[in-house]
Amino acid sequence: MMAGLLADILAEKRRWLGELRVPRSSELPSLRPVRLRRPAGAPLRLITEIKRRSPSAGALSTKLGVAERAAAYERAGACMVSVLCDTPYFDGGYDHLSLARAACSLPLLCKDFIIDERQLELARAHGADAALLIVRCLSRERLIDLMRTARSLELVPFVEVATLDEAHLAVDAGAELIGVNARDLDTLAMDSTRAHQVLEALPASVTRVHLSGVKSPNDVERVAQGGADAALIGEVLMRHDDPEPLLRTLVSAAGNSHAG
Predict the structure, then answer these.
(1) Which of the four CATH numbers 1.20.58.2050, 1.10.530.10, 3.20.20.70, 3.40.50.2300 does domain 40-255 have?
(2) Among 81, 121, 244, 247, whose CB has the most other CB atoms within 10 angstroms?
(3) Which of 228, 176, 240, 190 is nearest to 43 (CA)?
(4) What does pTM read for this prediction?
(5) How far does CA 97 lie from the centroid of its chain?
(6) Could you state, in order of their start, the residue ranges of all structural domains in the chain?
């Protein structure tokens, strides 16, 4: 049973879905390959994020527009851009995917609280290449259904978990790309030790991504040595009006790290 912030977000999402009408388009954007898997010894891949606000951080930098920030991330060495598409809590929108796509050549992750197939259709229409599916928000049956729909739309299902139980559920459901969130979505508390344990427990066949809490070169090196293929770096970059210097430093740290 969900409580607190996540329950509020999902209640608002259901209200929004009650009014949502997805325009039909005969022409969908071409897809960009999502390559997050890293061979042993290769640099940790860094996923960057565009979000203007979050419940945990409050207002973030809007000095750069969505397009300008996406281009800056690409120049500084990101491998993918996560785009917040929730409006009430994150000041995002599906149109931000279109803006980011026009400004960079990186693959895009639609980051929303996805509970309905129409959200996947919107993501695809606006240029996403992958879509976030959060286990905490879904039953096993809905997770499987939404993964199937995502793949039918040629979107990569990016499945988020926080606990060992959620990780087992995701693997059993057939997830091949799993992100482990160090932040608990109910309490917003950070626990990097738990995230490390869950990442380590994932089978070698799964592409593993560390989510939340990566802020410094030391954090990048720690995550890389823990065996993750990639890490998502969000709020620390969004606090900077110009994220390029910090991102270049983090990319350099990833390049100096090797899998443990």
Answers:
(1) 3.20.20.70
(2) 81
(3) 228
(4) 0.94
(5) 13
(6) 40-255
